[in-house]
Amino acid sequence: MSNVIILPIVVPFIIGAILILLYKRHTIQRVISGITMLALLALSVFLAIYVYQHGTIVLEVGGWEAPFGIVIVADLLSTLMVLLSTLVGTVCMFFAFQTVAQDREKQFFYPLYLFLMIGVNGSFLTGDLFNLFVFFEVMLISSYGLIVHGGTAYQLRESFKYVIINIFASALFIVAIAWIYSITGTMNMAHIAERVAELDQKGALNIVAIMLFIVFASKGALFPLYFWLPKSYYGPPAAIAALFGGLLTKVGIYAIIRTFTLIFNHDIAFMHKGVIVTIAGITMIIGILGALAQSDFKRILSYLIISQVSFMVMGLGIFTPLAIAGAVYYITHHMIVEPALFLFAGAVQKITGTTDLKKMGGLLGTHPWLTWMFFITAISLAGIPPLSGFFSKFSLILAGFQEQQYVISAVALLVGLLTLITMMKIFSHTFWGKQKHSAEQAKISVGKLLLPILPLVALTIILGFGAEPIFNYSMEVAKDILNPTNYIESVLKE
Amino acid sequence: MQKPNNMMLQTLARLIIVIVLSFSIYLLLAGHNGPGGGFIGGLMTASGILILYLSFNFKTIQAVIRFDYVKVIGIGLLFASLTGVASMLFGFPFLKHFFDYFTIPILGEVELTTAMLFDLGVYFVVLASALKIILTIAEDDK
Questions:
Q1: Is the pTM for the entire model greater than 0.90?
Q2: Range of the structural domain that residue B18 is part of
Q3: A220: closest CA among A142, A287, A318?
Q4: Which residues of chain A lie closer than 8 angstroms to B74, CB-CB?
Q5: Across the strands, what pairs with A57?
Q6: Mean pLDDT of the residues in chain B
Q7: Residue in B71, B81, B97 closest to A10 by CB
Q8: Nearest CA among A318, A294, A324, A321 for reference residue A307
Q9: Partner-chain contact A62 B81, CB within 8 Å
């Protein structure tokens, strides 16, 4: 049974290799990769349900026992993340079928896409710190390929910065791993957690914790390492930008949540309630100010990612079951809504040929379906009840007030309001006002493009109306990760 | 422009390539136990083939070595991944490796392991991607 949990990593690997062999035939590539993503989606749903019913599954790769070999661990949080990432991956791929140009498709688009999925799923599933680094690299190398894909001058210039910051972060990651190995003498995350609890070495561990936090923060785009994100996400086509916006930052956030609940829970007053909460607050404000200042569809969305991810980090910082559950709910909500918004930007771009808000208007008259679907998603992101954004923000802010974290809660409330303003700005510029696109452009049908986005819009409504069961699930996840002994015992079998 | 006379280079390359290639294959075969492995073996084979590209001209070698390097990368990846999956089919953990000793005529007793197949996959991937990268950059010149 435990072999099943490696399949989200192995299946895209094998299929990706086969697609390399077929690199000249783009129709077959499309069909195979579409089927693969659907199969992966079914698999990840099965995994999430199975783990929820039967508890954590651990696979010792190659039969090497736990503290020595590499372990793959599927617990509640990681299976949820795998489910969400595969969902986003599937939707973006079906969107890409219709938007990515054929000559781009032939340049290894689908193999790179599947290799990205290996990296993302692997990062969620691994139980070994060094292996986490390896999967980060798999993910990053494929993302370098995808972000320059097509090779326009803008993409090359901006992705250069993206590559540089990530190489710097990876180097720092290795140093931090070496450091933690010298302190604890192990790479297995469960084993590290066990040793950290025994060690009582606050000073040294805090330094390592902050180094790892910097590494993951640069992937998750937290203050002050967010600056690479808006420009590099602007370049690639909408399907890729949506994929990156949905997945890549969340991998960083997942890594922060995993390490700071499992390993570095030795100094909560300083690390969580001090450093992490402060950084989350600053990031929120910076991100939303950036979004307010922009007047471009995709750039606003890119800045919104920055302010949104900090809500999840805020949940971690407050560190109560309610707050963590809120963060988990927020990740779910955001991984559904943010890619959908990027895909809407792609659809709008297909009609008007631009993403500049000042050059578009009046889409409500010509494309009402697009408009209303965007409207639902947008107010969901802003946190209007009864959609999913409301419940995630509500639980986070409630937890903040319960823990007397008044400043961060007030900031979160304010940022929620400002998010609404940015969404209304997009809405009023793009969909209201005078029609600025030509009559020919008005005839462009985007029905086929909206079809892949439809599941995401439906999910944000379902997540809102079915908040009770989904919040209960988030609470289960939160209790599971706040009690690391479960994880440690299932890995080390004590 | 008159072509330079590179007879010395070409004669030496013919000698060197034998040594480099045989040592690289030794490295590949030693990899799973001793120093060596698919990665270093692949790089060394790639550098051996590059010596050929440098000393003879591009078209001559292209006519001799008729692999599509991109497909070699795919085949290598398949080798590596399927080795891991093979053990799953028999109910063992992913990537579990098996080995045994066999007596083969001439070579005597040798150890054969499934880890070798994984290394072979790595070898193909490294060999082909190193060559592909360098040749792509070289072709840009035209």
A1: yes
A2: 7-139
A3: A287
A4: 17-21, 23
A5: A74
A6: 85
A7: B81
A8: A294
A9: no
Cβ contacts of B95 on chain A, cutoff 8 Å: 61-62
The answer to whether B87 and B93 are in contact (CB under 8 A) is yes
Question: Token pair of A251, please?
Answer: 């991998």
- The answer to whether residue B119 sits within a structural domain is yes
Total residue count of chain B as it appears in this document? 142
The tens digit of pLDDT for each residue in B73-120 reads 999 999 988 988 888 888 888 888 888 787 777 777 777 788 888 889
- State residue A58 phi and psi, 5-degree precision: -125, 135
CB contact under 8 A, A62 and B93: yes
Q: Hey, what's the torsion of the CAs at A21, A25, A27, A28, to 10 degrees? A: -30
Tokens coding A262? 């499992």
Total tally of structural domains belonging to chain B = 1
| Best residue of A21, A59, A107 to probe chain B, by most B CBs closer than 10 Å | A21
- Name the residue among B77, B78, B95 with its Cβ closest to that of A62: B95
Q: What are phi and psi of A186, to 5 degrees?
A: -155, 160
Provide the ipTM. Answer: 0.88
The radius of gyration of chain B from alpha carbons, rounded to an integer in Å, stands at 18
Alpha-carbon Rg for chain A, nearest whole angstrom, is 21
Residues A246/A337, Cβ–Cβ less than 8 Å: no
Restricting to A residues 55-74, those with a Cβ less than 8 Å away from any Cβ of B are 59-63, 72
Measure the CA–CA gap between B32 and B22, rounded to whole angstroms: 17
Determine contact, residues A201/A176, Cβ cutoff 8 Å.
no
pLDDT at B1: 45
Low-confidence residues of chain A: pLDDT under 70: 1, 494
Instruction: Give the pair of three-digit tokens for residue A71.
Output: 């372990």
Neighbours of A335 (CB within 10 A): 24
> Contact A96/A149 with Cβ under 8 angstroms?
no
Residue B2 lies in a domain: no
